[in-house]
Amino acid sequence: MAVMADSAKGGDVFVEYATASDGACIAYWATGEGPPFVHMPNPPWSHSLVAWQVPEMRRWFERLLGRRRMIRYDSRGSGLSDRDVSDFSLDLMVGDLEAVIDRVDPPPFALFAYFASGPVAIAYAARHPERLSHLVLWCTYARGADYTRSDAVRATRSLIEQDWETYTETAAHVLLGWDQGEEAHRLAHYMREAVEPGTARRLFGDIDAFDVTPLLSAIKTPTLVLHRRQIAWADEGVPRRMAASIPGARLVLLEGKSPVPGLGDMEAVLDAVGSFLGDDYSPAATATGSSPRVQTVLFTDLVEHTEMMQRLGDDRGRDVLRAHEQITRDVLKQHGGAEVKTTGDGFMASFDSVTRAVDCAIALQRAFAAHNETETIGTEPGAPTVEPLQVRVGLNAGEPIEEQGDLFGSAVILASRIAAKAAGGEILIPEPLRHLLSGKSYVYADRGETVLKGFDDAVRLYEVRWRA
What we know:
single chain; 468 residues; alpha/beta; Rossmann fold; Alpha-Beta Plaits; 14 helices
């Protein structure tokens, strides 16, 4: 299955699924232009779409997009990938990367491993030297024990069984430092959106036992080992030993204590990566064009608008449209939606939050239902027939192209096509958007797969139930 979104750099982005050897579906997408750059996830904390809502992560991705075609994927059990999995063996996680690469089939690419993905990247590099042009190991390790031996990590892990929110808040502060208040809160929220607590617990049990130290000497790819000196859970000995074991590896130690490259001195990280890859990631070099921004696009459409206008005439028909417009604009305002444009019998709006967009869609349907009930009560025999407002709603999340206050591209088209499939009073969303809502208290009905006009692959749709 593939769901299309757009890159504000001008190219199409396909949120697609590769099938792993055990049948798990691994979500991935690619955006930008230039030599391929595969950015691995940090299991279990991966959610490709939600990451764009975290400023520290977004800044990092925006700068990398300046000179490379970026390929990203979500780790099994998290984000938009299959969450109903329980096996996180090294072979399976290497297989997930292999499945994504087999689908994209890029030329030799640069591989960026981040934190817990280090052992997976090392194993992949040892197995597939012909596929890689460069290997960048950022704030990572070759064996899980180098991370879990930290007293802070062990103490924090014990909180998973007691309270998930307390654990994520504490873990975020341990990772970033206790002086990073707002940044840690945002990271903790991202962690909760990315994965369920039971999955995180099972994954930790597997990846903590990873040890690919014997494979380091087999790496033939030019390798950069990047690390920040003051990271609490790993002293300088971890990256030094790893770099010394990889033939010809380059070691760069930077100042700072955050494993998140977009926090602290991000320019130093970009300079080191750019120097190694032969790219220029300076602000001036990457400022061309607007950067992609993940948005949730909402479409409404008034059912049988043309027939209504013919039946009622221009004056009465316009009165009905005014009621529709007033209700829609009031509800959009209440939920932080930005009206992009009106199509006469419908609206297009955008949201920075998927949850707010769905809450708005539900509020819209309830407002129209309340309007219809109010308008119907008290009608007398012989009075003009009351015209109910039946509205269909469709949503999709992606990276639309923004131009002169309007939104364009495949993410927008898909939202419109989804809305057209809804009946009056219905709200439809695609499967990837439902994954974004994982853990929220919405009720869904599976509407099955359907091929939408202009899209080759079938899209599974879900109805969001809004009636009590």
